[in-house]
Amino acid sequence: MNYITILFSLLLFGNTFIFPQSIKSYKIHSPEDETVEAGLELQPDKYLFLTRHGVFSDTLNMNWWGIFGYNSRLYVSDSNLNIEDSVDLTIPDYYTVAYKIQLIRDTIIILGRAIKTDLSEEHIFFSSFTKELDSIQTGILGIQGNYELFFDADTNFKGQIVITAISGNFEHEHHNLFIVTNNKKELISYINDSTSSGYARIHYNISSNTYHLIGSFSVSFYDTNFCKTQEKGFPFNGHFFNQFYIMPVNDYSYALQGLGFFQRNCEESGLDISYYLIDTGLSVLDSNYIYLPDSLDNAGGMDFRTTDSVFMGGTHNTNWDVTYPPQFEHENHKLVLQCSNLYTDEIYWTTMFAGNGNYMMKNLFVTSDNQCVVMSTFYDWQSNPVQERDIVLFKVNGNGVVTYSGYVNDQNQKFTSYPNPGTDRLNIKTNNNELYFELFDINGRQVIGNKKINDNKPVINTSSLKPGIYFYRLSNPENKTVETGKWIKR
């Protein structure tokens, strides 16, 4: 269906459709696979972005899919999305992937998953900073020898952080876990709940002083002692699933974003990016969805700030090919963003962001001047045979027009390897002569190990290696990873 037909269809629904806008398309920017997980406005001229970087592998245990081999980073940008600084979020002997960033009483809280490099344990990753980005605490929360799989976190009226997770060995029975802490990672309580298990988001309700544990089909209600009081199914059960995002609205309501199934007529149905606004008793106050005919879409974020306008977006036409891991399909995916009234059916505008490559919206947030910052990834499958994404950020004003766009790349990188691709040698240029170099083949076998870099331009002999793709790791004397990347031998 062409865009003229789509435009006509949307106008019939009282919606204004803006023709696809171009955002910057980038080729390979770094030797790592990079994604962006979350972001927020720290102040009007400073934004924070939570990212992860590493080498993608889809051959490992699915419990650690997309996690193994990655570490997290915190980027700082100005309001024009110019990257000003970055903070490395690593813990010795762990891979860290952070998903959640919050500002609580002038403290920046970062939460996620921390997996031991030998895969023997998994715990809650925790890091906190002042608003000036001075580190307060970084470490893990959990019981040694156990698995605590992080899902979500919210803050109660005391300013305590309540974390939801799954506890137990994945091979056996597991159940929900509540971890309560403060901004200094001091453990307040650690509560195992055997009444239910599974994926869950959390929302603390101020008016009723209760916790809502939100699953795929129902909500469990907990009191302040984390005793389960009741469980209620969604009134829209069967029509809406995969609640990716929760948006608190006020003391008595919150919105859930996910995918909604709509049978529009006898010939057309679709999975659309949708939200339901519900009160604390799960009664529906409002709902809306992005109408794109005959498509399979994927939710990518929802937020609002000072007006009744809510920004909601995602990825258009994510017809995942089972031969590729999600987000690495050899297809061109577009991004879509919609602005509507939170309490009525009025849609102000819907727009697409077109690009020559595989785009995936990861999240978004609305700024204090009611502009929307969209966080996405870009996989250039047509030019890059390696599964490797880059981070694309762009900012949209209240009229749906892109005002700034760019990509995130570590501007403070102090390591270079060349030529890449190469043949019989790999040259390394770095300003740090206290590093150790390792090279691994595509199956993870070490082919060159622990070679100390003794000067600022060493040469690694690779003449004995077969042509193919290799991955390198640089570590410091404490065996902490400081750089990873990909090298191709012709």
Describe this structure as you would to a colleague:
This protein is mostly beta strands and 490 residues long. It has two domains: 390 residues, YVTN repeat-like/Quinoprotein amine dehydrogenase (Methylamine Dehydrogenase, Chain H, 7 Propeller), CATH 2.130.10; 75 residues, Sandwich (Immunoglobulin-like), CATH 2.60.40. It has one helix and 36 strands. The chain has a five-stranded mixed sheet with strand order 1-25-24-23-22, covered by helices on one side. Strands 2-3-4-5 form a four-stranded antiparallel sheet, with no helix packed on it. β16 and β17 form a beta hairpin. The protein starts with a helix and ends with a strand. The N terminus is likely disordered.
Gyration radius over CA:
23 Å
CATH architecture of the largest domain: 7 Propeller
Number of domains: 2
Instruction: Name the shape in a single word.
Output: globular
CATH third-level topology of the largest domain: Methylamine Dehydrogenase, Chain H
Beta-strand content estimate: over 45%
How many strands, which pairing sense, and closed or not: the largest β-sheet?
A: 5 strands, mixed
Structural class, from helix and strand content?
mainly beta
Percent helix, as a range, is under 10%
Q: What is the strand tally?
A: 36
Mean pLDDT: 81
Topology of helices and strands:
Blueprint: H1 3-12, E1 17-22, E2 33-43, E3 46-54, E4 70-77, E5 83-89, E6 94-104, E7 107-116, E8 122-130, E9 135-141, E10 148-155, E11 161-167, E12 175-181, E13 187-193, E14 201-205, E15 210-214, E16 218-222, E17 228-233, E18 240-250, E19 253-263, E20 269-279, E21 284-289, E22 298-303, E23 309-316, E24 334-341, E25 347-354, E26 358-366, E27 372-379, E28 390-396, E29 402-408, E30 415-418, E31 425-430, E32 436-441, E33 446-452, E34 459-461, E35 468-475, E36 481-489
Parallel strand pairs: 1-25
Antiparallel strand pairs: 2-3, 3-4, 4-5, 6-7, 7-8, 8-9, 10-11, 11-12, 12-13, 14-15, 15-16, 16-17, 18-19, 19-20, 20-21, 22-23, 23-24, 24-25, 26-27, 27-28, 28-29, 30-31, 31-34, 32-33, 32-35, 35-36
